[in-house]
């Protein structure tokens, strides 16, 4: 999946002014029909973040089958998809993409967003059609993979008793979803791919997917492998932080990376932080499938000391680009994921540009507001590269 700039004339602001009608979200009222639902707490958590809507202010109808329109809206909300970087010759209509859609229906805007963000939906989509467990799982996994939120990988064999009922093009997504804990088999080892998926089941999968995404692997690789000083914040020397007036800032610590040449100021509450080393991948714009990797670079995430796999917190992710890579990214010679907007520059030195990924906090995990406040304080500064 690749990001495409639309060579159109009306501004995205006009598009965003279109009302997002639909089943309203009532933040002040908890759903009253979840008492017998195993995923009750997960659904309430999603509701508190505005990621699921009820059929009314207090009813979720957890056992009702999920329709295509509801499934699309659920994925669009969960991934934070939007039209903010796209402009159009004319205001788009849902029927421009899906002949059976109703332009005045509550789901119309979500269909437009989905169509412009790479979801693999057929033009003859019926918004009112019930979605099967197979269909929702496939669309969710493809959306996560296509937006570079979750990489597909070679998986160990997973025995699914009713594998014969799964269509071939959905098998990989279902196996990945099971392996990553997004969904599961029943006690007899069956998936029931052609059964209607309920609203509660779909919401639980969204919750599990978001939890998986934020439980990042590769924490604390071998010390010294990326030039981090140090790997464990507990042993970080208390480097005095000096503001532009020459005054030392109180109650702050510093993460310093000597390989790439930057220093990041953290509040004292982050003492004991760790770092997570990963990489970003740039995909070719020229490849119609958007699958050819042409660039890559370091991704360094600073992690709060209270982060756990059971209760993840918002990381501070930093993408590292060479100057040439950054210039080529701005010239659209490659893209990162399928988001319609790219990374935003934080600061640079004479060799590297340090940037913030697009939609890094799309799921609003615990601590996201604190990270936003930290980033507003201009915490990152270049230092002389030592390698």
Q: What would the average pLDDT be, to the nearest integer?
A: 78
Query: What class do helices, strands and sheet pairing give?
Result: alpha+beta
Radius of gyration computed on alpha carbons: 22 Å
Number of helices: 9
Strand content: 15-25%
- Sheet of most strands: 6 strands, antiparallel
Features:
387 residues, 24% helix, 16% strand, 12 strands, four-stranded antiparallel sheet, 9 helices, single chain, alpha+beta, six-stranded antiparallel sheet, disordered N terminus, 2 domains
Structural overview:
- By secondary structure, this protein is α+β, with helices and mostly antiparallel strands.
- The protein folds into 2 domains: 12-213, no CATH class; 228-382, no CATH class.
- 24% of the residues lie in helices and 16% in strands.
- It contains 9 helices and 12 strands.
- It has helices at 12-16, 40-48, 68-79, 108-115, 133-146, 168-179, 199-213, 323-330, 368-376; strands at 228-229, 241-242, 248-249, 252-257, 262-267, 274-284, 293-303, 316-322, 334-335, 344-348, 352-356, 380-382.
- It has a 6-stranded antiparallel sheet, with helices on one face. It has a 4-stranded antiparallel sheet with strand order 1-4-5-12, with no helix packed on it.
- Strand 2 (241-242) and strand 3 form a beta hairpin.
- Helix 3 crosses helix 4, helix 3 (68-79) packs parallel to helix 5 and helix 3 (68-79) packs parallel to helix 7.
- The model is unreliable at 1-28 and 216-250 (pLDDT under 50).
Produce the secondary structure layout.
Elements (H helix, E strand, L loop, with lengths): L11 H5 L23 H9 L19 H12 L28 H8 L17 H14 L21 H12 L19 H15 L14 E2 L11 E2 L5 E2 L2 E6 L4 E6 L6 E11 L8 E11 L12 E7 H8 L3 E2 L8 E5 L3 E5 L11 H9 L3 E3 L5
Antiparallel strand pairs: 1-4, 2-3, 4-5, 5-12, 6-7, 6-9, 7-8, 8-11, 10-11
Helix pairs in contact: 2-7, 3-4, 3-5, 3-7, 5-6
């Amino acid at each position: 999946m690749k990001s495409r700039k639309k060579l159109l004339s009306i501004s995205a602001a006009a598009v965003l002014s279109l009302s997002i009608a639909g089943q309203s979200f009532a933040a002040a009222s908890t759903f009253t029909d979840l008492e017998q639902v195993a995923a009750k707490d997960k659904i309430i958590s999603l509701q508190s973040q505005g990621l699921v809507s009820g059929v009314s202010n207090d009813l979720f109808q957890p056992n009702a089958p999920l329709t295509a329109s509801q499934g699309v809206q659920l994925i669009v909300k969960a991934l934070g998809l939007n039209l903010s970087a796209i402009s159009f010759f004319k205001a788009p209509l849902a029927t421009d993409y899906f002949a059976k859609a109703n332009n005045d229906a509550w789901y119309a805007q979500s269909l437009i967003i989905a169509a412009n963000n790479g979801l693999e939906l057929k033009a003859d989509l019926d918004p009112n059609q019930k979605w099967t467990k197979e269909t929702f799982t496939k669309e969710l996994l493809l959306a996560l993979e296509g937006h570079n939120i979750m990489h597909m990988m070679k998986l160990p064999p997973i025995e699914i008793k009713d594998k014969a009922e799964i269509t071939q093009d959905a098998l990989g997504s279902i196996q990945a979803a099971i392996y990553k804990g997004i969904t599961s088999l029943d006690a007899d080892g069956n998936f029931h791919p052609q059964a209607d998926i309920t609203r509660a089941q779909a919401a639980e999968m969204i919750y599990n997917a978001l939890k998986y995404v934020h439980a990042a692997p590769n924490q604390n690789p071998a010390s010294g492998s990326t030039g981090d000083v140090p790997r464990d914040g507990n042993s970080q020397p208390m480097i005095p932080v000096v503001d532009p007036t020459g005054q030392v800032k109180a109650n702050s610590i510093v993460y310093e990376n000597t390989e790439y040449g930057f220093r990041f100021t953290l509040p004292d509450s982050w003492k004991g932080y760790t770092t997570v080393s990963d990489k970003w991948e740039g995909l070719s714009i020229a490849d119609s499938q958007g699958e050819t990797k042409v660039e890559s670079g370091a991704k360094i995430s600073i992690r709060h000391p209270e982060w756990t796999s059971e209760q993840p917190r918002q990381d501070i992710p930093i993408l590292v680009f060479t100057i040439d890579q950054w210039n080529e990214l701005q010239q659209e010679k490659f893209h990162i994921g399928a988001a319609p907007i790219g990374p935003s520059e934080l600061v640079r030195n004479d060799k590297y540009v340090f940037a913030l990924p697009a939609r890094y906090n799309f799921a609003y995990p615990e601590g996201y507001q604190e990270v936003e406040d930290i980033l507003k304080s201009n915490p990152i500064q270049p230092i002389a590269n030592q390698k």
